[in-house]
Specification:
- By secondary structure, the chain is α/β, with parallel strands linked by helices.
- The chain has six helices and 13 strands.
- The protein has one domain (2-211): Class I glutamine amidotransferase (GATase) domain (Rossmann fold).
- The protein has helices at residues 13-26, 39-44, 56-64, 69-79, 89-92, 199-211, and strands at residues 2-6, 32-36, 47-50, 84-87, 97-98, 104-105, 112-116, 128-136, 152-157, 159-163, 169-174, 178-185, 188-191.
- It has a nine-stranded mixed sheet, with helices on both faces.
- Helix 1 crosses helix 6.
- The radius of gyration is 16 Å and the shape is globular.
- 45% of the residues are buried.
Length: 214
């Protein structure tokens, strides 16, 4: 099995690659994990991961700066149905648009918008950073198997995904009100939290993703 982690100048790529390699080894899967900026490698991969750290517009500009990368992602993920995981801003880029430092178009793969976090509790700080308990909204989703009550995962973000279709919301977290923690449809999955930083829970999710057959 081949996994392409897209290198577009944004994301903790070394940490992500190590987490995928460890999860594959623990699951007994023969998996080749490649960090790549090559669109052809993305087209050829059996699974695609889009990480992301930073501002929405900067991350999108990084993708656009790689000639042919967005077309390769669309071919591999949308046309061929390869399993896809977006992490943090990589998840946010799936939205129709982002409202961070202006209005910016996203990939538009999952309808919705990325807007600032405004916790109801004024004592809660922005960015939302640290460990929080997941509320699984779609308990039957294969990639969320083994996660549930008392599962804590790691967040670092100041903006949140607001999905147009509630059925696309797979998990939430409470941070001064409900905040989307995972979205998905068909062969697409995105997490606002960082599975590569979420220890055992994150490795469980990554292992599930590597076995996922949407």
């Amino acid at each position: 099995m081949s996994v392409a982690i897209v290198d577009y100048g944004s994301g903790n790529l070394r940490s992500a690659a190590k987490a995928f390699e460890r999860a594959a080894a623990e699951a007994g899967l023969g998996t080749a994990v490649q960090v790549t900026a090559d669109p052809e490698a993305v087209r050829a991969a059996e699974r695609v991961v889009l990480p992301g750290v930073g501002a929405f517009a900067d991350c999108l500009a990084g993708l656009e700066a790689l000639p042919g990368m967005i077309a390769a992602l669309e071919e591999a993920v949308l046309a061929r149905g390869r399993p896809f995981l977006g992490i943090c801003v990589g998840m946010q880029l799936l939205a129709t648009g982002g409202r961070e430092h202006g209005d910016h178009a996203g990939l538009g793969w999952i309808p919705g918008e990325v807007v600032p976090l405004h916790p109801a509790d004024p004592d809660l700080k922005i960015p939302h950073m640290g460990w929080n308990e997941l509320e699984i909204v779609a308990p039957g989703h294969p990639v969320l198997a083994g996660l549930g009550r008392d599962t804590h995962v790691y967040f670092v973000h100041s903006y949140q995904f607001r999905a147009e279709d509630p059925s696309h919301v797979l998990a939430r977290v409470d941070y001064g009100g409900p905040v989307v923690a995972a979205v998905g449809r068909d062969n697409l999955l995105g997490t606002q939290f960082h599975p590569e930083k979420s220890q055992a829970a994150g490795l469980t999710l990554i292992g599930n993703f590597l076995r996922w057959r949407p």
